[in-house]
């Protein structure tokens, strides 16, 4: 509804109760309705699912329409990110939030900092989803509140043109609420546990759930060693559990991201059940590291499998885990991805050990031979040494071209001594265009960085602490933070406003009229930052 229609609807509701509601203003109620567009997390999930599906279709039409996100570990961080995006780009289109299980473990667990091994409380993840959306909704309420104040000023000045302009702004207001790609790890248990937790995600507002094919109780960060995968049927049961959760809650177009860690996972906890030769269980087992045995060479307690009439002994470790053959990672990734897409997943996540477009494209092209249109969510991970990786990629490319690289030591390319060289400049150019190039060449629909704000918080705090407790003293904060906030137009410099003081004043006036005791008067020190 338009602004005027919302006022009319509120007025109709108020008039039903006659004189006893005379103190309730229709326009004030309408403003509060518009400032709280999403009444439940399900409302958010339904809205953002449609946004994400439309973006996926736009990418299919043109890979230049890829999307991006940054991982945020607190509602305030997510809010400031979206406020910044609207300020600098005028729209949130194509920009999402990523919710990283790694950051929940490291920053949000009641146990304290934990590694990314599914040891944190599972309920802390949907709690963060709800928190992020609370802060994004507050960003809407705050911005609309300022527009309403400007509208009141225009009315007082009798400026009809400005009144019309502001009403148009209100009617076409773009929300800060965007899709969240939410990390459910390996599902925190069996398929029923995954279903129950997925419902909590969706009820908190998640339209997109990412799940990985590791064993829940052995789950590791994608960039750590010791990863253990599960047979496809186990993983597909969890994908179906998430889909049922979406359907039960009426988010029919919810998005599932199936992540495979097989590229770096050399172990499995289970030998898959085989019903007939060549089925998915048989294909999974075909990657096991086995040796042929005969009855005379059987050891006590040996585990055997039969394939094509031959007895094979899979290599079993002291941990009771079974080992895959070396060099099978990419083949397992391709099979994982095809199987997931054929059984209800919408997007893929291939966890790689380096950001190499050729490697990613090689796997995606194989997947697309079977499932045309397959596309990825890709982790532009801080676990990669981007500088060293891309300098080495340029070094290798120049070597293959026959160019002279004698002035560079490949193993030491991270050195500051190479900054400013032609090779370093070329590497930085490739890093700058990595997302665009990978979206075009490797099927990457969504680029995310899992834990960037973990690192930015550490870096900015280190910079401030070094100066403030050193020779700079108070100048470290003034020059390094406040002066930059003012000059770069950060709304947060007015921290009272950002925390909701002006919205509170508006409400006090709605509730108490002239008797309202408001905080935003002449003596509020926030006025020192008036534009």
From TrEMBL:
Its cofactor is Mg(2+). Keywords: Lyase, Magnesium, Metal-binding. Can also use Mn(2+) ion. One of its GO terms (molecular function) is metal ion binding. CDD domains: ICL_PEPM. The keyword Metal-binding applies. It catalyses: D-threo-isocitrate = glyoxylate + succinate. GO terms for biological process: carboxylic acid metabolic process. The active site is at 221 (proton acceptor). Mg(2+) binds at residue 183. PANTHER family: BIFUNCTIONAL GLYOXYLATE CYCLE PROTEIN, ISOCITRATE LYASE/MALATE SYNTHASE. NCBIfam families: PRK06498.1. This is Isocitrate lyase. It comes from Novosphingobium nitrogenifigens DSM 19370. The lineage of its organism: Bacteria, Pseudomonadati, Pseudomonadota, Alphaproteobacteria, Sphingomonadales.
């Amino acid at each position: 509804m338009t602004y005027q229609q919302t006022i009319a609807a509120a007025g109709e509701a108020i008039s039903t109760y006659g004189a006893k509601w005379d103190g309730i203003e229709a326009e004030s109620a309408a403003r509060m309705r518009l400032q709280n567009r999403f009444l439940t997390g399900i409302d958010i999930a339904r809205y953002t699912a449609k946004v994400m599906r439309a973006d996926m279709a736009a990418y299919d039409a043109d890979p230049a329409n890829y999307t991006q996100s940054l991982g945020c570990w607190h509602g305030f961080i997510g809010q400031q990110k979206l406020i910044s995006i609207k300020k600098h780009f005028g729209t949130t289109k194509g920009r999402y939030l990523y919710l990283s299980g790694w950051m929940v473990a490291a920053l949000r667990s009641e146990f304290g900092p934990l590694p990314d091994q599914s040891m944190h409380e599972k309920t802390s993840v949907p709690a963060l989803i709800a928190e992020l959306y609370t802060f994004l909704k507050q960003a809407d309420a705050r911005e609309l509140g300022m527009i309403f104040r400007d509208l009141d000023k225009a009315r007082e000045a009798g400026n009809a043109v400005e009144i019309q302009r502001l009403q148009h702004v209100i009617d076409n207001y773009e929300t800060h609420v965007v899709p969240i790609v939410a990390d459910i790890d390996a599902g925190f248990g069996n398929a029923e546990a995954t279903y129950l937790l997925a419902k909590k995600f969706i009820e908190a507002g998640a339209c997109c759930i990412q799940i990985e094919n590791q064993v829940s109780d052995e789950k590791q960060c994608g960039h750590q060693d010791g990863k253990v995968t599960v047979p496809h049927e186990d993983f597909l049961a969890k994908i179906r559990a998430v889909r049922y959760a979406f359907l039960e809650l009426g988010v029919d177009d919810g998005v599932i991201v199936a992540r495979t860690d097989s590229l770096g996972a050399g172990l499995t906890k289970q030998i898959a059940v085989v019903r007939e030769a060549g089925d998915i269980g048989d294909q999974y087992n075909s990657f096991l590291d086995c040796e042929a045995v005969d009855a005379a060479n059987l050891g006590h307690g040996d585990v055997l499998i039969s394939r094509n009439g031959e007895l094979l002994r899979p290599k079993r470790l002291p941990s009771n885990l079974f080992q895959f053959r070396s060099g099978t990672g990419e083949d397992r990734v391709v099979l994982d991805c095809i199987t997931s897409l054929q059984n209800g997943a919408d997007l893929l996540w291939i966890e790689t050990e380096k950001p190499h477009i050729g490697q990613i494209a090689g796997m995606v092209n194989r997947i697309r031979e079977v499932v045309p249109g397959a596309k990825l969510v890709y982790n532009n991970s801080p676990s990669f040494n981007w500088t060293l990786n891309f300098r080495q990629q340029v070094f290798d490319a120049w070597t293959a071209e026959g160019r002279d690289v004698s002035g560079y030591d490949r193993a030491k390319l991270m050195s500051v001594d190479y900054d400013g060289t032609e090779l370093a400049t070329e590497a930085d150019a490739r890093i700058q265009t990595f997302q665009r190039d990978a979206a075009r060449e490797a099927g990457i629909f969504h680029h995310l960085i899992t834990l960037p704000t973990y690192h930015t918080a550490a870096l900015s705090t280190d910079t401030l602490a070094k100066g403030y407790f050193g020779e700079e003293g108070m100048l470290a904060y003034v020059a390094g933070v406040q002066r930059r906030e003012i000059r770069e137009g950060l709304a947060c410099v007015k921290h009272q406003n950002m925390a909701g003081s002006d919205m509170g004043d508006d409400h006090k006036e709605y509730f108490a009229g002239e008797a309202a005791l408001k905080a935003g008067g002449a003596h509020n020190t926030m006025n020192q930052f008036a534009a």
